């Protein structure tokens, strides 16, 4: 049913007058509908962020046993095997692996010893592992005039609340969320990047 024009205009005037009186009295003149719309828009704009955060796994729900044995260990073994090919070129070469579990540290200077220890852990013992450090040092290339050529790879793998954080230089950090299907791809790319950087440095030092 059509509203007569005089009633419609009267309602508009009354509404405007009401707003004017509220403003004069120092009251808020925002419309309730406007607030509701703003709330709805805010919820819509944040819905995707909320959904994404709810889908992210927490470390307490992650199977660290599988994560370390199936993904992290092959990544570290690949690095170790590549380093081993270079060890014979240097007078002083070594690796150090440190597992941090609360206030307890386990240190290994041989990858196979580290690997045997990891395999000896019960499934629930993995839940106490907070981080794994991997340090390799290549000192003194076996050549009289290039004796000072050195290089290293220094990694720290942290298992934080919602992601694996791998620091591999003073400024470089790789963050991979738990449950990310590209985990192995990112680990392989990091391994390749580490060795390209190492080899490039060695070449520059040898030619310097």
Quickly count the helices.
5
Largest beta sheet, briefly? 6 strands, antiparallel
Helix content: 40-55%
Name the shape in a single word. elongated
User: Which stretches are low in confidence, meaning pLDDT under 50 for 5 or more residues running?
Assistant: none
**Nearest-integer average pLDDT:** 81
Structural class, judged by helices and strands?
Answer: alpha+beta
How do the helices and strands follow one another from N- to C-terminus?
A: HHHEEHEEEEH
Portion of residues in beta strands equals 15-25%
Number of strands: 6
Strand ordering within the main sheet: 2-1-3-4-5-6
Please give the alpha-carbon distance between the first and last residues: 91 Å
For the CA atoms, what is the radius of gyration?
Answer: 31 Å
């Amino acid at each position: 049913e059509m509203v007569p024009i005089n009633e419609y205009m009267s309602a508009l005037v009354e509404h405007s007058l009401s707003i004017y009186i509220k403003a004069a009295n120092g009251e808020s003149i925002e419309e309730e509908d406007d607030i509701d719309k703003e709330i709805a828009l805010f919820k819509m704009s944040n819905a995707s962020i909320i959904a994404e955060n709810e889908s992210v796994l927490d470390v307490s729900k992650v199977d660290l046993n599988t994560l370390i044995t199936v993904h992290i260990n092959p990544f570290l073994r690949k690095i170790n095997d590549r380093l081993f090919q270079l060890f014979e070129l240097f007078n002083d070469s070594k690796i150090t692996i440190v597992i941090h579990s609360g206030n307890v540290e386990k240190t290994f200077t041989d990858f196979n010893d580290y690997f045997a220890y990891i395999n000896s852990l019960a499934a629930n013992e993995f839940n106490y592992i907070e981080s794994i450090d991997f340090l390799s040092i290549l000192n003194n290339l076996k050549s009289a005039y290039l004796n000072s050529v050195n290089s290293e790879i220094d990694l720290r793998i942290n298992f934080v609340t919602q992601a694996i954080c791998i620091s591999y230089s003073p400024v470089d950090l790789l963050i991979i969320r738990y449950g990310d299907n590209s985990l192995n791809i990112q680990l392989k790319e990091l391994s390749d990047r580490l060795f390209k950087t190492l080899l490039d440095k060695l070449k520059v030092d040898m030619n310097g």
